[in-house]
Amino acid sequence: MSAKLWTDVDAYVVDKLMPADAVMEASLRANAAGGLPAIDVSPAQGKLLHLLVRMSGARRVLEIGTLGGYSTIWMARALPANGELVTLEFEPVHAAVAKGNIETAGLSGKVDIRVGKAADLLPVLAAENQTPFDFIFIDADKPSNPIYLDWALKLSRPGTVIVCDNVIRDGAVIRANSGDANVDGARSAFDFFASHPQVTATAIQTVGAKGYDGFAIGILG
Predict the structure, then answer these.
(1) Which of 12, 76, 95, 166 could form a Cys-Cys staple with 89, CB 3.0–4.6 A?
(2) In this predicted structure, what is the pLDDT of residue 1?
């Protein structure tokens, strides 16, 4: 199985199941023009997040790691008219590009972009005493996964879905002493889900345009 085959199959999936989308294509162009790294979820993965938000019946979504807002748009589109998505981004330049993309998508009324270190912003969210989040997507710096997952649990309710991206790392997740902080962060996600009896979880390995990786998915309660 070659990376080219994975990419070709991804292209087939997109061609068959995902009609051309000028807004999403424009957002990727804006990301590139803004100098953002091309580490967005793939179109097929973005639509998977969209479907997971819809299937969970989520009204409030938390995203940790906005980048240029590509995944943000996919999830915000899945929300009902009264839905809300709060997304946290450390880099002001990334947040500015995301803001433009979200405005172009006509979703500014549903998306609240907060700029700063997520470890600092998450306690602020908790202190606001808002309704718990129904769906949480974590796709930020991997070494901080334990912090993000701990706060995700605090900001959840029974039934909340938590998705953590990039947990397979080309299979390196099985290496206990890899010396790679990103791999350690992926392993910490599995440790988190395994150590909380109130969370039921699994993982999906993915191959495609983004290489070999995967999502950990858990539900509270």
Answers:
(1) 95
(2) 66
Q: Enumerate the β-bridge partners of residue 219.
A: 161, 200
Class of CATH domain 3-220: alpha beta
pLDDT given for residue 129 in this prediction = 83
Confidence tier at 84 by pLDDT (50, 70, 90): very high
Q: For residue 2, what pLDDT is reported?
A: 86
- Over range 168-190, report the average pLDDT: 96
Return the sign of the alpha-carbon dihedral for residues 181, 182, 187, 189. Answer: positive
Is the C-alpha dihedral spanning 183, 185, 187, 189 positive or negative?
A: negative
Q: How many residues does the chain have?
A: 221
Question: Strand 111-115 relative to strand 211-220: parallel, antiparallel, unpaired?
Answer: unpaired
Question: How many Cβ atoms sit within 10 Å of the Cβ of residue 123?
Answer: 11
- E strand segments, the chain: 60-64, 84-89, 111-115, 135-138, 161-165, 199-208, 211-220
3-state class of 200 per DSSP?
Answer: strand
- Whole-angstrom distance, CA of residue 41 vs CA of residue 49: 9
Which residues, in sequence order, are CB contacts of 110 under 8 Å at separation 6+? 76, 79, 83, 84, 85
Task: Please state the pTM of the whole predicted model.
Answer: 0.97
Residue 133, helix vs strand vs coil: coil
Query: 161 pairs with which residues across the strands?
Result: 135, 219
> What is the Cα–Cα distance from 79 to 17, expressed in whole angstroms?
20
Question: Alpha-carbon distance 38 to 213, whole Å?
Answer: 15
